[in-house]
Amino acid sequence: MWKIYFRERSFIKMHSFKEISKLFDEKFNQRHFPAHPANLYDASQHLLTMGGKRIRPVLCLMGNELFDELRSEAYHVAAAVELFHNFTLVHDDIMDKAPLRRGMQTVHEIYGEPTALLAGDVILVTAYEYLNKVGSEMKRRVLSLFNEMAMKVCEGQQLDMDFAKKEVSMKASQEKGNITFDDYAAMIELKTSVLLGTSLRLGAVLGMAGLGNQEYLYEFGKNLGMAFQVQDDYLDVYGDPGKFGKQPGGDIISNKKTFLLIHALQSGSSADVEELKSLLESDAEDKVQQVVAIYNSCHIQEWAMELKNKYMLLAMQNLEETAVLSSRKKPLAELAHFLLDREK
Q1: What is the pTM of this model?
Q2: Measuring CA to CA, which residue among 219, 229, 161, 213 is closest to residue 194?
Q3: What is the pLDDT of residue 97?
Q4: 195: exposed, middle or buried (C-beta count within 10 Å: 0-12, 13-18, 19+)?
Q5: By C-alpha distance, which of 241, 247, 239, 204 is closest to 67?
Q6: For the chain, N or C: smaller number of CB within 10 Å?
C-alpha cells in the first residue's frame, strides 16, 4: 500500500517557483477592498499594487504541493500570508518614517499616518477573512499557527525598536543590557524568519503532512530566512548598485544595526571599534567609505559569506530530513539557491 501511495504522489505535477508565482499572481492581483470610503481602501490597496517577490505566499503553495496537489484553500491561506506581510510593512514604514517602499511613496507619505494605520488594520482584517475560507477540519490548526506567527513577528518588531536605543556589547565581556550577536539573531528570527517558516508549515498542513515533516519544513524556512537576511545586510554594503537597485550603504548612513555592524564591533581591534563608534555619531560625507574600510580590515565579507552558508547548510539539511521523494523537493532547493545567489 505504501509503495502505491508514494508512487501516486510522485506523479503529481510539481511547479517551479516561477510557475507557482504566476499562478498566485493571477488569483491575487485584484482589488481586495471596497470602493468607499476611498481614502481608506485606496490606501489599503496601494502597497499591494507594487508587487514584490511574493516569496511567502509562494512558499505556502510549495509547502502544500510538496505533499499533495494544490488545494484551493492553499490559495486562500497564501493570500492571507501575503496580506499579513503587507500589513507589517505599512506599520513598519510608519514606525521607521520611511518615505519609500519598493521605489514608490509609502502609504503614510501619501495618505497620512492616521489613515495608514487604519489601512494596515484593514489589510490584517482581510487576511483573516481569507483564513475564514479554510474548511472547518483544518481551520483551527491553520488559525493557531497563523496567530502564533503573528505574535512572534510583532515581538520581533518591538525588539528591533528596543535595540535601536541600545548599544552593542563589545567583545566577550558583555555589559548587561547591551545587545549581543545572539540577541540580534533572535530578533531577526522573530521579525523575518518565522514568517517564512510558518508559510511553508501552513502549506504542509493543507497538504496533510505529518507533524515531523511540518517541523522540518518550518526549520527549513527559518534558516532560509536567516541566510536571506545575512545576504540582504551584505548586499546593502557590497552589492552592485546597478543590480541591487540602490546605492550601497543605506544601513550605514542610517546607523542601522546589522549582522555586519555587530560583528565588526565585537571582533575589530580597539582602534577600529573606537573609530567605528565615532563614525556612527557623525554625518561625514565619506562615512560609508570609512565604515566599509573598517569592515574590510575586520574581514567582514568573508565572515558574512560563512555565516550565510552556515544557515544555508542548516536549511538544506532540514529539507533533506523531510520525508518526501527527493525529486519533489527539487523546486524548494532551487528556490533556496535562487534567493541566496541573488545580487539584488
Answers
A1: 0.90
A2: 219
A3: 87
A4: buried
A5: 204
A6: N
